[in-house]
């Protein structure tokens, strides 16, 4: 029936003889044998929108393989019955809170047995892949003899993002099947391959459309679908020890450019595994199991798994699908231009208004570049481009569901604009402000309907920064808050609800860190030594370079603002820094700030420094962040500790493998953090005084112990 339907309507999914409506609901694998004696297995895990690999699913597959032994089919098809895709990977819930490598190893051995069994059956097998085929899903597909990718299938090994490498045969099946350097690159970067590139690599045998699936399966059954042979010269060179050693060293130095071994051991473990055992399937299997089990119980993997769930939690904060179809942005400067472009890229109509035509025009070229780069498809980029509408006369206002104001940071200007917006917008529309520092209570003062006003605070650059703070105030309605949260998720950003308070979360937590770096510079500590210490802790970039990126003028203005409005001591910037701002040496944007920048925008660094950093350097930089986070939690700037950690990771890049600032504080020991702050306060002054927020965290930790 599936075949008949697909002949009529190529959009429907080919399910061979399986009638999904009639299939037993309690089974994950829906089965049927067609007239040509081909067995179809369709995975449809109950109660889930996507398929995953877990123990129960593999046990059921194992039982089916046993049954098939008695009555072998001419061929076996494995595909997913979910529209969403093939299999997204292992059920990551299984990986949480594991501490015993031996237990992981035992579970892996059971899983390997089933997948190895699939790889060894006597009849041809084919995985028909649509949508996401990732991690464990790709490993099951690789255990099949053939792979057919359908439509926009995506194949990849994302394990490295969780501090792992493939653990269900992926390390040896991929390196055996295709050019091993390509396979290793996939596993080391976690990047996905489209159906077409997978075909080019030989990872799939055919990339086709849904309407050809039945014919492809028939070809497999007849033994007529052949894989591209992959025994090139390069593969031969790499099958020898010295060739692999050479390639491994190159991979290692590439990884070293991005990730430190002590922070992220997985890619290094993977390279070691392939270097020592590549080409020897049994040794690779054994090494893969052991290495995966060891990695899974490391703090790094457990923290990165936590980060995965933090992301899910933040996505889940939006209560519903967004019904915002049209965004009108007022102010086409640094932020407004990108906000409009990013909204258009995400499928919304976006009108972009400004007082002047010039900023609108200036925003368009980078918008196109961003769309081309991030959508990687000229048709999609053109569609997105069509949705972005320059609107110097502000005609878009009356039709917009959401109006985002991104004009300069001046209270009176913003308030004046809101009066006009309220006049012209349609009933029920929302006004959002991108303000970084003006209290929303002040901004909303003259609004007719303040319940429809909210802060949507983006970070620069919008296309790279995943976090968006959704700022609440005393008159905000729940409905507007949820609409804002849903809008943020619908543009593929992560929302963190925050209270309207000075600096919200991210700017408030970053400021003492940046200023401490400035004080260290003032004391004569070299900028590169400071940046290195922060990177050594796990920050993606040091505070000196970050200050240059933010702009010295902006950084100092934020610090002044916070100093005026917060009851905690925030140090004054050294005079030479203020002079720099006066001179226009503002950072990367002017080619010179604390570093000088070459024409490609790269900071010019001196020779590697041998200077011994002060012993408390890392704590001086990092603990002020932690202290501010404890204060923000105590003051309910962010209500949920997980969301706070997530916001700091996705908004500032706070060392992801440490699981967030408060997670790090708990792992290090709240007592220890407070003692270290006390010591710093004694030596350097009150700015390090532990916040009262630690008391509760300390009690919780003691109670749990
Ligand atoms: P910007 O100066 O680059 O752009 C502001 C734009 O608003 C200019 O193009 C200007 O012509 C336009 N404008 C001025 N008056 C206007 C009016 N009456 N009607 C329409 N347009 C008008 O500013 P920006 O850096 O994009 O900042 C905008 C807002 O976003 C500010 O509230 C700022 O605090 C906030 N913000 C900035 C950053 C950042 O990194 N730049 C980050 C987060 C939030």
Could you explain how this protein is built, in words?
The protein is α/β, with parallel strands linked by helices and 705 residues long. It has three domains: 2-297, 2-enoyl-CoA Hydratase, Chain A, domain 1 (Alpha-Beta Complex), CATH 3.90.226.10; 326-502, NAD(P)-binding Rossmann-like Domain (Rossmann fold, 3-Layer(aba) Sandwich); 507-636 and 669-704, N-(1-d-carboxylethyl)-l-norvaline Dehydrogenase, domain 2 (Orthogonal Bundle), CATH 1.10.1040.50. The chain contains 29 helices and 16 strands. The strands form two sheets. Strands 1, 2, 3, 4, 5, 6, 7 and 8 form an eight-stranded mixed sheet that branches. The chain starts with a helix and ends with a helix. Mean pLDDT is 94; it is low at 1-10. The site of nicotinamide-adenine-dinucleotide has 22 residues, from helix 14.
């Amino acid at each position: 029936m599936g075949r008949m339907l697909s002949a009529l309507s190529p959009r429907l999914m080919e399910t061979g003889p399986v009638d999904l409506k009639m299939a037993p609901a309690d089974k994950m694998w829906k089965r049927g044998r067609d007239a040509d004696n081909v067995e179809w297995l369709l995975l449809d895990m109950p109660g889930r929108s996507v398929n995953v690999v877990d123990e129960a699913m593999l046990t059921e597959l194992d039982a089916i393989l046993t049954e098939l032994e008695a009555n072998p089919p001419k061929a076996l098809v494995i595909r997913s019955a979910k529209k969403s895709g093939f299999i997204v990977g292992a059920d990551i819930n299984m990986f949480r809170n594991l501490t015993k490598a031996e237990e992981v190893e035992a579970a892996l051995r059971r899983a390997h047995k089933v997948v190895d069994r699939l790889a060894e059956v006597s009849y041809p097998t084919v995985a028909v892949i649509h949508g996401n085929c990732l991690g464990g899903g790709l490993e099951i597909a690789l255990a099949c003899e053939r792979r057919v990718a359908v439509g926009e299938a995506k194949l990849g090994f994302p394990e490295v993002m969780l501090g792992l490498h493939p653990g269900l045969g992926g390390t040896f099946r991929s390196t055996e099947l295709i050019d091993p350097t390509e396979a290793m690159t996939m596993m080391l970067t976690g990047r996905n391959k489209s159906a077409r590139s997978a075909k080019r690599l030989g990872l799939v045998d055919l990339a086709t459309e849904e309407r050809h699936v039945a014919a492809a399966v028939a070809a497999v059954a007849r033994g007529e679908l052949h894989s591209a042979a992959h025994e090139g010269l390069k593969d031969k060179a790499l099958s020898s020890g010295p060739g692999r050693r050479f390639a491994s060293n190159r991979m290692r130095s590439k990884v070293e450019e991005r990730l430190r071994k002590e922070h992220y051991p997985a890619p290094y473990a993977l390279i070691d595994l392939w270097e020592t055992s590549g080409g020897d399937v049994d040794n690779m299997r054994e090494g893969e199991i052991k290495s995966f089990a060891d990695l899974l119980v490391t703090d790094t993997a457990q923290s990165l798994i936590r980060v995965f769930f933090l992301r899910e939690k933040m996505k889940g904060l939006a209560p519903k699908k967004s019904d915002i179809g049209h965004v009108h942005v007022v102010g086409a400067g640094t932020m407004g231009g990108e906000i409009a472009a990013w909204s258009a890229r995400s499928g919304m109509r976006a009108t972009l208004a400004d007082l002047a035509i010039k900023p609108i025009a200036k925003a368009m070229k980078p918008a196109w570049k961003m769309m081309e780069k991030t959508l990687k498809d000229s048709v999609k980029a053109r569609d997105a481009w069509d949705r972005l509408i320059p609107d110097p006369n502000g005609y878009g206002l009356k039709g917009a569901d959401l109006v985002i104001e991104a004009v300069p940071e001046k209270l009176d200007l913003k308030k004046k604009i809101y009066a006009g917006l309220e006049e012209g917008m349609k009933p029920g529309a929302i006004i959002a402000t991108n303000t970084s520092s003006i209290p929303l209570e002040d901004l909303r003062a003259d609004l007719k309907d303040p319940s429809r006003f909210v802060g949507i605070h983006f970070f620069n650059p919008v296309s790279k920064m995943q976090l968006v703070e959704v700022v609440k105030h005393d008159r905000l309605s729940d409905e507007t808050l949820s609409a804002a949260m849903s809008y943020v998720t619908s543009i593929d950003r992560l929302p963190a609800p925050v209270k309207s308070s000075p600096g919200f979360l991210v700017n408030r937590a970053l400021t003492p860190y940046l200023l401490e770096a400035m004080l260290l510079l003032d004391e004569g500590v070299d900028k590169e030594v400071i940046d290195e210490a922060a990177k050594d802790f796990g920050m993606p970039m040091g505070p000196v370079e970050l200050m240059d990126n933010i702009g010295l003028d902006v950084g100092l203005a934020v610090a002044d603002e916070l100093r005026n409005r917060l009851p905690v001591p925030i140090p004054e910037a050294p005079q030479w820094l203020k002079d720099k701002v006066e001179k226009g040496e503002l950072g990367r944007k002017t080619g010179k700030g604390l570093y000088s920048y070459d024409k490609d925008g790269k900071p010019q660094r001196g020779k590697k420094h041998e200077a011994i950093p002060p012993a408390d350097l890392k704590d001086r930089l990092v603990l002020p962040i932690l202290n501010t986070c404890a204060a923000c939690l105590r003051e309910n700037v962010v209500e949920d500790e997980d969301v706070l950690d997530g916001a700091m990771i996705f908004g500032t890049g706070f060392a992801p493998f440490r699981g967030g600032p408060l997670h790090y504080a708990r792992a290090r020991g709240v007592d220890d953090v407070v003692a270290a702050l006390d010591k710093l306060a004694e030596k350097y002054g009150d700015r390090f005084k532990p916040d009262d927020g630690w008391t509760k965290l300390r009690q919780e930790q003691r109670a749990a112990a």
